[in-house]
Specification:
Distance between the termini of chain B: 77 Å
CATH architecture of chain A: Orthogonal Bundle
Largest sheet of chain A: 3 strands, antiparallel
Strand content of chain B: under 5%
Strand order of the largest sheet of chain A: 1-3-2
Helix content of chain A: 55-70%
CATH topology of chain A: Arc Repressor Mutant, subunit A
Number of helices of chain B: 12
Helix content of chain B: over 70%
CATH superfamily of chain A: Winged helix-like DNA-binding domain superfamily/Winged helix DNA-binding domain
CATH class of chain A: Mainly Alpha
Shape of chain A: globular
Structural class of chain A: alpha+beta
Oligomer: heterodimer
Radius of gyration of chain B: 33 Å
Order of helices and strands of chain B: HHHHHHHHEEHHHH
Number of helices of chain A: 4
């Protein structure tokens, strides 16, 4: 993140907001750190581990996610899940996203 | 059985060290699980443990930075919300305190050490010391505020258009000037009283004051009263023409006699001057020069400073009353 070209910085800015939306959406099904990372990367969200993990914790602190340790498997993992507040936030963000998207399309024309 | 090596343990150790006690176990567990999760596919693909581990841990980055992000800790000393305030306070603090200190130390030390050159070093040293203290304490205070969110919220008031400096000098400036004058009067009174009872010379066990004691009968009370009135007028009225005239009158009443008293030497206690003359004649640096000319020059210089200062102040009063600051229009 240190010496990026300005274009790369702008692209990162663009992506940064969408990762939150993606997490809230994806975690309606409980998920854990690394698994989520894989899923997001597969879905086209290019996010790094050292960005995602602190983000999950921040969202938990804001009450949009809740966490629980799952000790059933051989490796205990912390599972995150979207809360009711998180659902509401997700809906709001989606509306925002669609509004922005059409606004940009309108500009382009 | 863990698939990680000692390297991961070291990484986790370095990371949790920066987290508060309560959260360490949780943080370590979560991180360890994530690291192992990331290692697995690599190891399954046949990658050797060492390179895989290095890659995963390297990807996570500086453990201290990771934990700081995790715990939402600011990675700066003073953040954008209060930076401008800090900067302003720092500059004001330095601009006010350092010159005062340098001048005061020089004057006092030159009297005590009976030397003109030596005190320069003392004064500069004192100035530097004050500058460092101001810089340190102001910065420390703001670093603490940055990390205390409640205090931050009250400082982080939104800038509104009302915060623009006004076109004419506003109440704030006026209040500041009035207060400065009052403080100056207070300091003057204190200094006068002090010099009456303390002096570098003594005669029969009584201190020899610098200023002519009979001045207490009429001059000092008069000068103090006029200056005090001027300060009160400043505080109460706006910067307008009337207050500028009042200021001019006050200046004339005070400065003209002050200059006359200084230049003719009537302000000074003759006994003090005698003693000073004898003393100074012994200074090595002044050997051979005409003492009287030196004294004469000094009092004329002081008189000139008083006169110029008074004139400047009067002119400032008129300047502030007349012109609103013109906007830099095209």
């Amino acid at each position: 993140m240190d010496e990026l070209s300005s274009l790369e910085q702008h692209r990162q800015e663009l992506r940064r907001g969408t990762v939150v939306l993606a997490c809230l959406a994806q975690l309606r099904e409980p998920g854990y750190g690394y698994g989520l990372l894989e899923t997001l990367e597969g879905a086209g969200f290019d996010v790094e581990a050292n960005t995602l993990y602190p983000l999950l914790r921040r969202l938990e602190k804001q009450g949009l996610l809740t966490s629980e340790w799952n000790t059933e498997e051989s490796r205990p993992r912390k599972f995150y899940r979207t809360t009711a507040d998180g659902e509401a936030a997700l809906a709001a963000l989606r509306i925002e996203w669609r509004a922005l998207s059409s606004a940009i399309d309108a500009l382009g024309a | 059985m863990s698939i990680t090596t000692d390297l991961t343990d070291r990484y986790l150790g370095a990371a949790v060290k920066h987290a508060p006690e309560r959260q360490r176990a949780d943080l370590e567990r979560e991180l360890r699980a994530s690291i192992e999760d990331a290692l697995e596919p690599r190891l399954d693909a046949g990658e050797p443990v060492d390179t895989a581990e290095r890659a995963v841990l390297g990807g996570l980055g500086d453990p201290e930075k990771l934990v700081a992000d995790w715990l939402d800790r600011p990675l700066h000393l003073i953040g954008p919300a209060v930076f401008l305030l800090w900067k302003k306070l720092l500059i004001w603090g330095l601009a006010v305190l350092v010159p005062i200190t340098v001048v005061a130390v020089y004057l006092i030390q030159s009297l005590v050490q009976r030397d003109l050159v030596g005190p320069i070093g003392d004064a500069i040293g004192a100035g530097l010391s004050v500058a460092m203290h101001v810089a340190f304490w102001v910065t420390l205070a703001f670093a603490i505020v940055e990390r205390s969110t409640d205090a931050l919220r009250s400082l982080r008031k939104q800038w509104t258009v009302d915060d623009l400096p006004s076109r004419t000098p506003g109440r704030g400036e006026q209040l500041a000037e009035g207060i400065i004058q009052l403080v100056a009067v207070g300091a003057l009174v204190f200094a006068l009283a002090w010099q009456q009872f303390n002096s570098i010379y003594e005669s029969d066990g009584q201190p020899v004051p610098l200023f002519e004691p009979s001045l207490w009968l009429w001059w000092w009370p008069f000068a103090i009263a006029v200056t005090l009135l001027g300060a009160i007028v400043q505080l109460v009225r706006r910067f307008d023409l009337v207050s500028a005239w009042v200021n001019l009158a006050g200046q004339v009443l005070v400065t003209v006699p002050a200059v006359w008293l200084t230049v003719t030497g009537a302000a000074f206690n003759p006994e003090f001057l005698e003693r000073l003359r004898d003393e100074v004649q012994a200074w090595p640096v002044l050997e051979g020069t005409a003492i009287d000319t030196g004294f004469g020059g000094a009092v004329i210089a002081i008189g000139a400073i008083l006169a110029i200062g008074g004139a400047w102040d009067a002119v400032e009063g008129f300047r502030k009353a007349r012109k609103p600051r013109t906007v830099l229009a095209g």
